What we know:
410 residues, alpha/beta, 8-stranded parallel barrel, 11% strand
Amino acid sequence: xxxxxxxxxxxxxxxxxxxxxxxxxxxxxxxxxxxxxxxxxxxxxxxxxxxxxxxxxxxxxxxxxxxxxxxxxxxxxxxxxxxxxxxxxxxxxxxxxxxxxxxxxxxxxxxxxxxxxxxxxxxxxxxxxxxxxxxxxxxxxxxxxxxxxxxxxxxxxxxxxxxxxxxxxxxxxxxxxxxxxxxxxxxxxxxxxxxxxxxxxxxxxxxxxxxxxxxxxxxxxxxxxxxxxxxxxxxxxxxxxxxxxxxxxxxxxxxxxxxxxxxxxxxxxxxxxxxxxxxxxxxxxxxxxxxxxxxxxxxxxxxxxxxxxxxxxxxxxxxxxxxxxxxxxxxxxxxxxxxxxxxxxxxxxxxxxxxxxxxxxxxxxxxxxxxxxxxxxxxxxxxxxxxxxxxxxxxxxxxxxxxxxxxxxx
Length: 410
C-alpha cells in the first residue's frame, strides 16, 4: 500500500472538519429550534352563565345549537382543545349520582334541564367529531357564590347533606380540604366522569383554599393536623394529598386521561421563597396553599397551565419573566406546560394601555413560540372571541400565519 500524500492527508482533514462542523451545527439547531406548539385550547366558563349556556332555562335544542356554534368558532380559530366547566360549584353539567344538576342549566339546582339533556355528552360528541379534545373542568371545593345559604341548595347536594364538611368565608361556602371525606368525595366525582365519559382530560383551576387569611378551619386543624407544627404546612399537605389521590385514581381508571391544573400565575415571589420568580404579586404557595412546584417536580400532574394574565413589561408580574420561570420548572420532568393567556383583557376601552391594542398580546404569543419548553396555550375565556372581537381577529390572523393545524371533521 502506498504512503498517502500530503494532499490526500490535507483533504482528509478538511473533510473531517467539515463533517464535524455540519454535525455540530445540526445538534445546535436541534437544541435551539423550539418544539412545535401544537396545543391551542380555550376555557368555556359555565358559572353564572359566563359562556354556556347563554342563560338558564334554554331548551335542549337551543343548547345544542349554542354548542355547535361555539365549536364551529373554535374550529375556525384552529383551537384543538376545549376546557368545559362541568362542575362550577358542587353541581353538575351531566347526570350524576353524587352532585345535583347545575342551577345554571335549568335555573334551579337539582332540576334537570329540558329533555334531561346531557350537555357534557353532547360537547364531547361534537368536539370529537371536529377533531377537538374535550377536557372536563371542575371546581373541587366551591359550594356557593353570592349570599346563599346551605338551605338554598338542592337536597342531594353533598354540602347540604354534610354541612360539617363545609366552612363559611367571605359570604361563600366551601368544602373543607382538610377533611379526608371531602377529598374522597371530590375524587369519586372525578372518577365518575372518567368512567362514564370519553373525556380527554380532567382539569381544575386555581380554587383551593380561598385565601391566606382564614381561620374557619381551626377546629379541623386540631382534629387532623397533629403531625404538623403549623396550620399553613398542614393546609398545603391537604391540597398535596388531593392532587396525588386524583392522579392515582385517574391513572388506575384510564391512563390516557390528562390530569391538569391551572394555578395562579405566580407560585412564589423570590423575596418570599428562594425558588420563586422575580415578581411581587399574590402567591399560590402562600395565599392559596397550592405548592404547584412540588406537584410538577414529583409528576403528580400531567400538565400545568399557569394563568399568566399580565402584559410583557408589567413590573409586578412580567409575562416574560413568568413564562421563562415556568418553562424552567418543567424542563427536566414529564409534565406538559401550556400557558394560560388572558384573551379577556383585550379591550379597546381597557384602562391599561397594553390591552387596548393587540400588540402586547401578539408579542406574548411570539415569545411563547420562541421558547423550547411550552407546548401551547389555553385562552380565557370563550366569549372573548365571540362577535369578531379584537381577540378573534388577532387569533384568526396569527393562527393562519403561523400554520396552526386546523382541527378537521372526522
